[in-house]
Amino acid sequence: MNWTLARSLAAAVVVVLGAGVGAIVGRAFGAPIAGAMVCAALASAALAAWDTARGQALLDWLRGPQTGPAPREAGWWGELAYRVERGLRARDNAIGEEKHRLREFLQAIEASPNGVLLLDPGDQIEWCNSTAAEHFGLDRERDCRQRVTNLVRAPAFVAHMQRGKFDEAVVFTSPGVRGTLMVLVRPYGDGMKLVLSQDITERERADAMRRDFVANVSHEIRTPLTVLAGFVETLAQLPLTEVERRRVLTVMMQQTDRMQTLVGDLLTLAQLEGSPRPPVDRWLSVSDLMQRTQTDAIALSAGRHTLVVSGGDDAEIAGSDTELLSAMGNLVNNAVRYTPEGGRIDVQWRWRDDGSAAIVVTDTGVGIAREHLPRLTERFYRVDGSRSRETGGTGLGLSIVKHVAQRHGGEIDIASEPGKGSTFKLVLPASRVRRRAGVVAEPAVPA
Ligand code: ADP
Fold first, then answer.
1. Domain range 283-435, its CATH number among 3.30.40.10, 3.30.300.30, 3.30.565.10, 3.40.50.720
2. N or C end: fewer C-beta atoms under 10 angstroms in the chain?
3. CA of 382 to the centre of ligand 1 (A)
4. pTM of the predicted protein model
C-alpha cells in the first residue's frame, strides 16, 4: 500500500476537519478565520503527537531484547514494525542455524579418534578437541590463545614448527599419552594451521614385536640350518665310516625334526591368529579330549613318570577340538619335559563354583622362579634356553596355549615353585562348558 498518499490524505482530512470545527466555533466569537487556524494547528499538533507515540512504541521495542512481538499498530507504523520484526527474526533464525551447524561440526571433530588443533597465524591455539588436549597435555580452557610451542616443547615438534615445511609428518614422544605421536601440520586460510595428531604407540609396539618375532624366527631356524649345512658338507667331502655316517645322519634328523616342529608351531600360531573364533555351538566330549591327551602323554613319558588323568566324564566344551588338543598337548608335553624321571603328572578336569571349569596340569618337576611367570606366554620366552632346546622345545608352546584359551573366552593361570613343580590351568568360561545330560555330576572343587 502507498502509505505516503494515505498518510498525506489522512493528515489533510484531519487538518481540514480541525479548520472546519475551528471556523464554526470561531464564528460564535466573531473570529471564524482565527478559530479555523487555531483548530487546524491543534489538529496538526495532535496528529504529530499521536504519530510520535506510535514511533516511540516501536523504538522502545527495538531498544529492548525484542523477545516479545513488535507493537501491533495499524497503518504505516504497523507495517514498519512488522517488516522490521520479520527482518530481525529472519536474521536470528539464520544465526541460530549457523550456530547449530557449527555445533554439529565441532561435535564431529570432537568424535574424531585423531587430535585436531587449530592455530592462528601467530601459532596460538584457537581451538582443540579433547583428543588433541590429551595428546599434547593441554588444558582446553586455560591454554587457549597460548603459543603452541610454549606448551608442547618436544624438540622435534618445536623444530618442525620453526622449519615451516609441513610436507611430512613429525613423530615424537607425547607428553600427554606417554607414547608416540604422529603429527601432521596443514596450513589453511590466512596463515592459520590445522594440526592433526595420532597416537601410534600401539602401532609402533606391534611393529617392534613383528621385528623381534622375525628376528627370533630367523635365529631359531638358522641354528639347525647351520648344523645341517655343516653335516651335509662333511658327508660330501669326507670319507666316513659307517658308524660316523649313522651318527651324522642321526644329528641331521634331529635338526630337521627341530625345524619341522618350529614351523609346525608357527603355522599353528598363524592359524590361531588368522581364523575366526571357535564355534559356540559345537559341543565336544571332555572325556574324549582327556583320553587322547593321555595317550599322547604316555607315549611322550615312555614310562618315566606317574601319569594320572581324571575328571571330565560329565563335561562338554563348546569349541575347537584341534585347538584344545593342541593346548592340552603343549601343557602335558611341557610337564613331561620339565619333570625329571620318577615325577608325577596330573591332568584334571575341575568344575568351579561359578559354573566355569579348568583343565589343570600339575607336575612335580623343576618349577619356575616367580619373576619368569608373567613372561612365560610370550613368544620364544624360555627360562632355560638350552634345556628347552635339548628337549625339543620351540619356545612357542605356552603362547599357543594362551591363544587357544583366549579364543575360547578363557585364560591361562600359572603357579609354580622352583624345585617343587608347577600347575598350569586352562580356565574356560561358564558359557563354553556344560554338564553332559544323563551323567552323574562331579562336585565343584576350588580350581
Ligand atoms: P618351550 O618350547 O621352551 O617349552 P613354552 O612356551 O612351552 O616353550 O614354555 C616356555 C618356558 O616356560 C619354557 O622354556 C620353560 O622354561 C617354562 N616351562 C613351561 N612349562 C614348564 C613346566 N611344566 N615346568 C617348568 N618350566 C616350564
1. 3.30.565.10
2. N
3. 6
4. 0.69
